[in-house]
Design goal:
Elements lengths: L15 H7 L1 E7 L7 E7 L1 E4 L4 H12 L8 E11 L13 E7 L2 E4 L13 E7 L6 E8 L5 E9 H5 L5 E8 L11 E13 L31 H7 L10 H8 L5 E5 L1
Antiparallel strand pairs: 1-2, 2-12, 3-11, 4-7, 4-11, 5-6, 5-8, 8-9, 10-11
Length: 267
């Protein structure tokens, strides 16, 4: 904790397994490296649910907990498989060094950068907490690191479109990419999108089959560095169909757990 008056940093610690075992905690933490002082915090454990009714529950829970800040209600899992036919630089006629920025409101994640590729195979997973999933938008900017991170193509989708599906999951498929500088010729991005609602406490849902595997857990054949066939007739056959294995369930839940920390008093 930073003291604005004196600029000092004071530390308080709590073992997270204590929270996992109890679902929620309201406690005083003793500040370290100071003569005296304690901090009152309230923490809540959330699991991930595919039940749409859980959204109303978390909205009520958030309103009770704190009203000054926007608290998260859902976790968006965005799996970027690859892009196809990215445009070359108009000035230098060179292939781009592409990477993707994944954005929801003020939250942003980034993929790795590939050198000189128009068909980069990202195999990247972004997990983003959403404060208002019914009114927020997912945006993916495909940028060129060669030209000062210029946006060469982009994709947008309201998160509500994912929520409105039966399973809150849109399976792997290709989407056309847009450009602010003009039309693009068969430029696409291949995605898998899934939404999970934060549910207070431990969920009874024992298996989450809608979240993709992490790239490290996928078969090695899916991680080839050769460029994919751009023939649209063969595209669906070549798309990976990631699934969540039992041993990855706890990892995905842990990645989506949100800790609401509320500072009550400071002595």
């Amino acid at each position: 904790m930073i003291c604005p008056e004196y600029g000092c940093i004071e530390i308080a610690q709590l073992r997270l397994n204590t929270l996992v075992d109890n679902d929620d905690i309201n406690t005083w933490l003793t500040l370290q490296d100071v003569k005296q002082g304690s901090l009152n915090v309230s923490l809540q454990y959330f699991s991930l649910s595919k039940q749409k009714s859980a959204l109303e529950i978390i909205e009520r829970k958030n309103n009770v907990m704190i009203k000054r800040e926007k608290l998260s209600k859902a976790l968006l899992v965005c799996y970027i498989d690859r892009c196809l036919n990215l445009p070359r630089s108009k000035k230098k006629h060179r292939e781009p060094n592409p990477f993707c920025r994944v954005k929801v409101e003020g939250t942003e994640t980034k993929t790795q950068t590939f050198e000189s590729q128009t068909n980069p195979q990202f195999e990247h997973i972004s997990q983003i907490l959403c404060a208002n999933p019914l009114h927020e938008k997912l945006k993916i900017d495909v940028c060129n690191a060669q030209s000062k991170n210029e946006v060469i193509a982009y994709f947008e989708m309201p998160i509500k479109q994912i929520y409105d599906t039966d399973t809150m999951t849109i399976d792997t498929q290709s989407y056309p990419l847009k450009s602010v500088s003009g039309p693009l010729d068969k430029t696409e991005i291949i995605l898998r999108l899934s939404l999970f609602i934060l549910s207070p406490g431990h969920s009874s849902e024992s298996r989450l089959s809608s979240s993709p595997q992490t790239p490290s857990a996928m078969p090695s054949t899916s991680r080839t560095t050769t460029r994919p066939d751009t023939n649209r007739n063969n595209m669906q056959d070549s798309l990976p169909q990631p699934s969540l294995k039992e041993d990855n369930v706890s990892k995905s839940i842990a990645s989506g757990v949100q800790l609401h920390v509320i500072i009550g008093e400071y002595n």
